[in-house]
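Subject: Sanity check before I submit

Could someone independently write out the structure tokens for this chain? I want to compare against mine line by line before I put it in a report. The sequence has 277 residues.
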Amino acid sequence: MGMRIDAHQHYWSIARGDYGWITPELPLMNRDYLPEMLEAHLKRHGIDRTIVVQAAQTAAETEYLLELSERTESIAGVVGWLDLFDPGHRELYEKFRGHPKFVGFRIMIQEMEDASAVLEDGFVEGLTYYAQLGVPVDLLVLPHQLDVLMELADRVPGLRGVIDHLGKPPIASGRLDPWREQLTRLAAHPNLYCKLSGMVTEADHKQTVAHGGFSPLCQAYRGGVRHEAHPVRERLARMPARGGLRPGRGSARTVAAAGPDGRRAGRSLREQRGWVL
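---
Independent answer below. Compare away.
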């Protein structure tokens, strides 16, 4: 039986100072989340390993996560960060790729004031370089940025991209279009993948979560995307094995943000939606 690997999870130490977006006004997030806090939950749910994803746009945080992975067996891989607007991004990539647990990097389009910046020639050239190398690139986007992502995918047809959290559909409102149409169009790119994650935070906890309201969303995903000729796939379904591991499909997202007593934070996750990274 293959390992069960959670495809998207975060660790951070507030004292490091990488996370300027985490403030005292976000008490659920404004504390450390480290491996020892997650181990019991991994065992309880039968998760063998996790992929840890960057949550700060700094090279220092990627280095920190790689160091953490060296002493944490449950970390199968680290998705780091690169600034493709920085002319020195290739040198930094070469440094990171030398680590056995570095498995790719993430572009935080969500944090850009103008998402169309990723269509600038220099950025497209950089992304094309990594596409030619076959490097997995996580894509953190909001629904209103999907049109830009579609154009980016057209300009970099070989991009091995991973759309995080289904592109954050507006689950709470129940209005799945134009998200559904946009994701279907993105499915025409055979190297684009998708993580079934982060849905709880985009939902209405009184209605969607309590009453099993994810079914329409999953039906939209299956009917509008998975049945296309070139489906957007869950990220780890075809990811090559590293270090003797054979990744399986990304599991339901297990996150270190379960409280110290093991209980999940409920409605406050919706109120602090920036937590879904």
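---
OP: Matches mine. For the report I'm noting this point. The first helix runs from residue 35 to 44.
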